[in-house]
Amino acid sequence: MDDVAARVSSDDSGKKFATADVNYTPLQHLYVLAQCTPDLSDSDCNNCLQNGISNFSSCCHASLGARVLFPSCYVHYEVYPFYNASVGAAPPPSSPVLPPHTSTASSLGNGRISSQVFIAIVVPIGVALVLFIAGFCFLTSRVTKKYNSLKDNNGKNGKSN
Question: What is the mean pLDDT of the chain?
Answer without folding.
Answer: 78
